[in-house]
Fold this sequence. Notes:
Elements: H1 11-23, E1 33-35, H2 48-53, H3 58-69, E2 81-83, E3 93-95, H4 98-101, H5 104-110, H6 113-132, E4 136-138, H7 173-177, H8 185-202, E5 212-217, E6 224-231, E7 234-241, E8 261-262, E9 269-270
Helix pairs in contact: 6-8
Amino acid sequence: MALLWNSLATREVRLLRYSMQQRFAIDPTCAWVNYVRVHDDIGWTFSDEEASQLSINGFDHRKFLNAFYTGRFPGTFASGLPFQENPKTGDCRISGTCASLAGLEKAEKEETGMEVDLAMRRILLIHSISFSMGGIPLIYLGDEIGTLNDYSYQKDPAKAGDSRWVHRPFTDWKKYERRKDKKTLEGRLFQSLLKLIEIRKVHAVFASGANHETEVLDVGNDHVFGYVRSYFNEKVVVLANFSEREQVVSVDRIPSIIWPGQDLVSGKGTSQEKR
């Protein structure tokens, strides 16, 4: 599942929330495989019927997503390429690495350190959902160090007509070496992902099984995707802010949670007043 961070596009959070409320539950002996992207192209396979329940036109919304992620929408941060584009309808699928689609490529080339930081936060945000939603998380081909699109495929006649090669780069071992240095972008991202992985390993509530439950919440703020993970007496609230600004969520929208609690990422305590 590819996810969109855009302070204006609250439709994505509404559609994600509604779709997960309708479709996330599966047989407890099975598990989802969660990934931000893989070796293949990305398609927008949400249900038109579910979109219509939210007064969203599915076809038009896919056109918007295609334009946004191929850099054709004003103000976009994404650097993706179309795959199998239909010039008559505008329908296509999307190619690109996680970092390039999340804005890191454009930020490094054209913008300031603030945009670089936002891109890094987007990458961590979408992976944190993959790690905590329940199921088996997958990190693909260099996303753990912020690998950018590789356009060199366009010089190879055997690959030039297939934009998926843009996110199938040769391994840059120098870039991988920088993952050990927290002062580099690779190090910041890699070490942050390791921390999220360690949190998942320590807390059984993030696994999947017969006694694990996920409740997708309507937190009253369409910038924030929220859910509660439960495993016997352990409960974790996940609040994912998809905007570039701080957001407020009332504790009244989060059921069955005892305050104060602990922020698993920062390690700091939380209180009802602070929420």
